[in-house]
Amino acid sequence: MLASRKATFLIIIDFFSAFVSWALFFVFRKIYIEKVPLEINDTFYYGILIIPVCWIGLYFLQGTYADVKRMFRMKILSLTFFGTLIGSTSIFFIFLLDDTVQTYAHYYQSFLALFAIQFLVSFIPRIVFTSVQVKKIHTGKEGFNALLLGGSEKAVGIYKEIQNLHKSIGTQFIGFVNLNGIDTLLKDELSYLGHVDDLEKIIEQYKVEEVIIALESTEHQRLSSIITRLSGTGIKIKVLPDVFDILAGSIKMTNIFGVLLLEVNPDGMPIWQQSIKRFIDISLSLIALILLIPVYIFLAIAVKTSSKGPIFFRQERIGLNGRKFKIIKFRTMYMDAEAKGPQLSSTFDPRITKSGRFMRKARLDEFPQFFNVLIGDMSLVGPRPERQFYIDQIVAREPQFLQLTTVRPGITSWGQVKYGYAENVDQMLQRMKFDLLYLKNMSLALDLKIMLYTILIILKAKGK
Fold first, then answer.
1. Which of 24, 48, 262, 314 has its CA 20 to 30 A from that of 458?
2. Are residues 23 and 101 in the same domain?
3. What mean pLDDT do residues 231-255 have?
């Protein structure tokens, strides 16, 4: 609640800053560029209404309001500079380039004035806001509810080192969770909140924001299991530096005022790229649903004439953060194909219809999922969603599979492109490796590459 109030306050600051900066720029342009008497006209009022909203939208895409409590001065400087550069350039080309000017030098003056005014007017209140926030953190007036996992000497050492820092880093311990027994070295320092088996309940009950895992480096499997359980919760996870070898590529080192911990970083894609990814998902899905209408009609006829039954096949799958949804496909199997329970298809599966066999090779049966993307159940690119029946079997062997539910599932995926449809749980585990690689390397460039390979598979009809 506190974080949301701070974000709202910063949004209000930014809105009024954009309001003031546009008014100042309007005055500057009239007096010094156009050199005409200042007159408040419709252009001024339209700008006052539209421009601040555009700036707020840009800041949202940057991720400025995503974690305001953890904002620091250099970060707000960087966000303000690059945001102002992008926004000023966009406003110049959209709203100002068609202005009538005496010389081209006036264009440069307009752009520089717009950039300078917007940067200064927005940065000054932002840096004041951030400095106040940082001071509250350093003095211990505000912080983040932290849970310490473990009761060994290392756990005690971490606790005492953080508590004895000259400046607070915001870590406010609410208690510890035991990993082995109740009798631990921490019992006289912190409140005992329970056993690691009840970790999720404890986190929810005490509104935990950070978890520091104090495990020995030899307990790799246990550490991996705990991190997997915490994936997708939005909680900051920090571990001891001597476990770096098993987590290389998925963590970043954070030297916090002398306390060296490794922060697990589950967000492989920056917030601004996540926003663009969602925008691309919606835009391309809308275009596809409209342009592919003739294809949908043809495929619907093919399905209907191939066998009795409905055109579309809807099945429950597990999506983002474990949420259930109904995936939509063109039906490629005969009715009652799973009368004996859940079954994966195989290359020569007799349950698949003649038209269905071709559609599966060309991935045409997946086309209705553009609607799933449009309503937010899926993305164009992401790990393929599975049924709970098979997830339970996979997780029993590889708990890290649950990490794949931290992002929206996709119509296509790295695993789908590289491996194709899985015929059994073993093949699902093989495909999972590619999807985990995708999770750790998410980017718009990688999404584009996967989509291009998927288009080639569709055109060649060589999907497995």
1. 314
2. yes
3. 61
